[in-house]
Design a protein that fits this description.
about 180 residues; alpha+beta; eight-stranded mixed β-sheet; about 30% helix
C-alpha cells in the first residue's frame, strides 16, 4: 500500500522521512511539547530518527498512519498527526498529534486533522475515532471540541508514563 498524501490550503500531509529528523528534533527536544507526550524529551537527533522509524514501521505493519505536516511555503515539517491502535475489526482507531510551538494557536492542527478524519472515515472505513488527552491539556481539549469530538469521561490512572500513573480524558467522534 502506498502512503497517502493529503493536501490543505497551507500544508502537505505526507509520510515522514529521515530528511525530517532536524525539524522533528527542533520541537521534540522541548519540554513544553513533551509535557503531555508519553515519551521523554528528546536529547539527540537519533531520538527523532527512532520515532520516524517507529511511525513508518506502524504503517508498514498496517497498524496506522502518521503524517508529516509540511508547510507548503517552506517545506518545513511543523508537526505530525495520524492514527494508531487501529482496530479494523471494530472500525476504530486513535488519533494523536503534536506541533512545533512556533506554530501553536494558528489553526494548523485543525487544518491537518480535517482531511485526516475524512480519510479515516471514507478510506479506512472507520466508524469511531478516539483521542486520549491529559485532563489538564486545555488546548487539546479545545481543538477536539472544535472538531466535534465528544468528551466521554476521564479514566483514572489509565496510562503509566514517565514513571507514574496518569489520568486520560477520552474523546470520541462517530461517523454518522
Amino acid at each position: 500500500m502506498e502512503f497517502p498524501v493529503l493536501e490543505t490550503e497551507r500544508l502537505i500531509l505526507r509520510q515522514l522521512t529521515f530528511n525530517d529528523t532536524q525539524d522533528l528534533f527542533e520541537y521534540f527536544s522541548l519540554d513544553e511539547v513533551m509535557e503531555y507526550y508519553d515519551l521523554e524529551t528528546f536529547k539527540t537527533e537519533e531520538d527523532s530518527r527512532h520515532i520516524i522509524q517507529h511511525f513508518n514501521s506502524e504503517f508498514e505493519k498496517g497498524k496506522g498512519f502518521r503524517w508529516a505536516l509540511e508547510l507548503k511555503s517552506s517545506g518545513k515539517v511543523i508537526g505530525t498527526c495520524g492514527y494508531h491502535n487501529w482496530y479494523r475489526e471494530h472500525f476504530r482507531a486513535e488519533i494523536g498529534y503534536e506541533l512545533n510551538p512556533k506554530f501553536w494557536q494558528q489553526s494548523y492542527m485543525k487544518e491537518a486533522i480535517l482531511p485526516i478524519l475524512t480519510y479515516g472515515f471514507e478510506t479506512m472505513r472507520l466508524h469511531r475515532v478516539d483521542a486520549f488527552i491529559d485532563p489538564s491539556n486545555i488546548s487539546s481539549e479545545r481543538l477536539l471540541t472544535s472538531l466535534n469530538f465528544s468528551k466521554e469521561g476521564t479514566l483514572k490512572d489509565y496510562f503509566f508514563e514517565k514513571g507514574k500513573f496518569v489520568d486520560a480524558t477520552i474523546f470520541g467522534l462517530i461517523n454518522k
